């Protein structure tokens, strides 16, 4: 039996992956090398699993079937000999073959192009270092914003001052850090510094846009920025006119780039760049390879791009692990190249120096210290244990108890038993609310998160059961108070994968699905006109990325599953603002913490 047939028989390929291989075979009159067909099918399957391509030395990362994989060298040679596979030089555009092999990686041509164009775009932005002139004039304001900046890099602001100073002399900057490490607070101060710098030099204020991959993440970013700018306004010695120039709204990346109804391209691209001087993107770990490529190409020459994110979270659902790759290429960021350290001396004093390697060296700061202390929820010790995969510490933290954290050990069904009423009563309130904005606010109070979409513990079945309990088995599919989750991007509606809505019946009993946005703060749609959607009382951790909820119930499956990883657990628990409940067994928690949600990508080497 051929390897392709063996994979198909084991259920390791989707019909569409197999169809791609078959169409190549047919076009060749049946004579294509089986190894080329398998590679084509794997490249297609890889993208569906979030990888950019297949590492030919480690095909099991894409497909864990029990087969003997071809040896990487002979496999690569067979691919090189095939008319379906291009072998582009690094940085050269792909020739029109459906597959490309480069540096031991096999790609579908389109994804290799996204990677190449993204790397070129990031290098272009990084190379345009802003003029460091005028830093002296800014130092009084800088010292007011970061009074401990000159204490050295171990100053107890956890790196915020260094991030802000670097933003003044870098056009590409990554600010990474866990929840509450002050990413938004720092960026607000950076924007204030850029506004002040322009004012002191007699220039117009910079044109700034804030964006995030989902509507909810954009709203959260705007809320945090408004709070941070209110604090600045209240501080002594900060010019109110500078505060007035701070942005107070954020949009989705799709809206920023300008969607064109029913087309996968945007109004802004390399030929029609964004009319902006500064683009700040929050939740960058959620941005996939195609979208990051399109964003970077639309950033005009000379403009700044600042990416904020938490690299320990799950990578984007769609292909690419873009933030992790850029972070790896940029290095730790504790030390700076000598010239940069020297130019920032007026602001930071002495900074450790390191020889920068690669075009992105010294373009990243990792914020270390968490500031969001809540007496109600002491999440940090558990989040740290999960992030580092320390299963013993995680079990200890869960069992000993932390403020706001409840461990329901071995509970596999939170919709049964004592927890059922606690969950349902919050959702029943939604069925009583009449105001869509209030209902959307209430919707963010509680979420049941699960690792799986299908099966008894998957989001689909849990939603069915919750909806049955709330509105009965004969329910109206769009009953008053039902929560909806959009599962595809619709440029026509301005609704995107991950957006949450609530159904309400108007005075005439007509159902309307309400979503955040629009000039009134909410937008209503007839449910029949909505793009693909599902219920949202329970949702997968993947879909919850970029959102926070007052109370999170996390349900792990009875048995280990491939989707479980330390990144999934870390992402899930850090969605909670006030209260976290974890329903899981020790063996499944341990198995999850032993696994990484890493993605196969060639972006890091392209950026070195
Ligand atoms: N240097 C600081 N000193 C005191 N408080 C701070 C400092 N930096 C941030 N904070 C506070 O910590 C909280 C979280 O800050 P912020 O929202 O900027 O973090 P974040 O990293 O953007 O969070 P998230 O991960 O939720 O996006 C805010 O209440 C903010 O006021």
UniProtKB/TrEMBL annotation:
It comes from the Bacteria. ATP binds at residues 177-184. Its EC number is 5.6.2.3. Residues 536-582 form the UvrD-like helicase C-terminal domain. In the RecBCD complex, RecB has a slow 3'-5' helicase, an exonuclease activity and loads RecA onto ssDNA, RecD has a fast 5'-3' helicase activity, while RecC stimulates the ATPase and processivity of the RecB helicase and contributes to recognition of the Chi site. PANTHER family: DNA HELICASE B, DNA2/NAM7 HELICASE FAMILY MEMBER. A helicase/nuclease that prepares dsDNA breaks (DSB) for recombinational DNA repair. Binds to DSBs and unwinds DNA via a highly rapid and processive ATP-dependent bidirectional helicase activity. Unwinds dsDNA until it encounters a Chi (crossover hotspot instigator) sequence from the 3' direction. Cuts ssDNA a few nucleotides 3' to the Chi site. The properties and activities of the enzyme are changed at Chi. The Chi-altered holoenzyme produces a long 3'-ssDNA overhang and facilitates RecA-binding to the ssDNA for homologous DNA recombination and repair. This is RecBCD enzyme subunit RecD. It comes from Lysobacter cavernae.
């Amino acid at each position: 039996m051929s390897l392709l047939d063996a994979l198909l028989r084991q259920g390791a390929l989707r019909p569409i992956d197999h169809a791609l291989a078959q169409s190549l075979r047919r076009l060749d009159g049946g004579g294509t090398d089986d190894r080329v067909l398998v590679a084509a099918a794997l490249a297609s399957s890889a993208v569906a699993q979030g990888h950019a391509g297949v590492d030919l030395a480690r095909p099991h990362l894409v497909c864990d079937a029990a087969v003997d994989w071809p040896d990487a060298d002979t496999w690569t040679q067979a691919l090189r000999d095939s008319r379906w596979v291009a072998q582009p030089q690094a940085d050269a555009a792909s020739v029109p073959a459906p597959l490309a092999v480069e540096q031991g990686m096999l790609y579908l041509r389109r994804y290799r192009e996204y990677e190449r164009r993204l790397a070129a775009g990031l290098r272009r932005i990084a190379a345009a270092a802003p003029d460091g002139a005028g830093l002296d004039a800014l130092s009084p304001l800088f010292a007011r914003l970061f009074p401990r900046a000159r204490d050295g890099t171990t100053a107890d602001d956890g790196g915020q001052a260094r991030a802000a100073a670097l933003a003044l002399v870098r056009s590409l900057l990554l600010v990474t850090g866990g929840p509450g490490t002050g990413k938004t607070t720092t960026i607000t101060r950076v924007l204030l510094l850029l506004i002040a710098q322009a004012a002191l030099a007699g220039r117009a204020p910079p044109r700034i846009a804030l964006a995030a991959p989902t509507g909810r993440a954009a709203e959260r970013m705007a809320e945090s920025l408004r709070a941070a700018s209110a604090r600045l306004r209240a501080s002594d010695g900060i010019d109110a006119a500078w505060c007035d120039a701070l942005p107070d709204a954020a949009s989705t990346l799709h809206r920023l780039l300008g969607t064109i109804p029913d087309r996968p391209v945007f109004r802004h691209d390399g030929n029609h760049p964004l009319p902006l001087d500064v683009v700040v993107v929050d939740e960058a770990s959620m941005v996939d390879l195609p979208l990051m490529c399109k964003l970077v190409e639309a950033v005009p020459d000379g403009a700044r791009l600042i990416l904020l994110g938490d690299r320990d979270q799950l990578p984007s659902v769609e292909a690419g692990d873009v933030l992790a790759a850029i972070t790896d290429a940029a290095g730790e960021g504790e030390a700076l190249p000598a010239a940069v350290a020297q130019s920032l001396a007026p602001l930071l004093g002495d900074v450790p120096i390191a020889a920068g390697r690669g075009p992105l060296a010294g373009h990243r700061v990792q914020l270390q210290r968490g500031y969001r202390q809540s007496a109600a929820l002491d999440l940090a010790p558990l989040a740290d244990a999960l992030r580092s995969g320390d299963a013993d510490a995680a079990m200890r933290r869960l069992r000993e108890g932390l403020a706001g954290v409840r461990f329901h050990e071995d509970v596999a069904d939170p919709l049964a038993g004592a927890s059922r009423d606690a969950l349902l009563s919050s959702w029943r309130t939604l069925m009583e609310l009449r105001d869509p904005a209030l209902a959307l606010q209430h919707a963010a109070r509680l979420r049941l998160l699960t690792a799986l979409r299908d099966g008894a513990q998957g989001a689909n079945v849990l939603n069915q059961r919750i909806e049955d309990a709330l509105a009965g088995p004969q329910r109206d599919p769009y009953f008053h108070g039902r929560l909806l989750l959009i599962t595809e991007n619709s440029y026509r509606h301005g609704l995107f994968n991950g957006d949450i809505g609530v159904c309400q019946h108007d005075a005439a009993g007509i159902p309307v699905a309400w979503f955040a946005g629009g000039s009134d703060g909410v937008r209503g749609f007839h449910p029949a006109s909505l793009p693909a959607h599902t219920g949202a009382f329970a949702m997968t951790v993947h879909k919850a990325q970029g959102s926070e909820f007052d109370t999170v119930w996390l349900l792990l499956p009875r048995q280990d599953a491939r989707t479980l990883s330390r990144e999934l657990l870390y992402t899930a628990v850090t969605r909670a603002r006030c209260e976290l409940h974890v329903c899981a067994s020790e063996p499944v928690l341990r198995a999850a913490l032993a696994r990484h949600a890493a993605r196969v990508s060639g972006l890091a080497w392209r950026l070195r």
